[in-house]
Amino acid sequence: MSNDRIAVLARQLLDLDEGELKPREKAVIERAARRLAVSRDIDDDYDKQSTFGQRLADRVAAVGGSWGFIISFGVVMAAWGLSNTVILGSDAFDPYPFIFLNLMLSLLAAIQAPVILMSQNREAARPHRRGA
Fold first, then answer.
1. What is the CA radius of gyration of the chain?
2. Full-prediction pTM beyond 0.70?
């Protein structure tokens, strides 16, 4: 790109002459004039550096904190209770008070809670990377 074009853009955008531009400012104007990206998305960089476990924690938190999960969880609980009381009756595999169901819910909570906390810690670290 010609220096004349940079000087014109500098005057238009920054109200500066080309001689007053720092090399970095000049590079930004050149990239903007060519319609190239002037900055990069640090969230993309942060996500690319994440490990499998971190990506898994983010996904578990996204699913576990959704209405779809809450509704489907309620449906499963209702089906479990209905099948073990009314449908199966005396042949229920987990009769009331649903001891096996309580064990499964405790295991789910014991695993899901720390994974969601890991995801929240990662999310909380994002603003620090931005310098905000």
1. 28
2. no
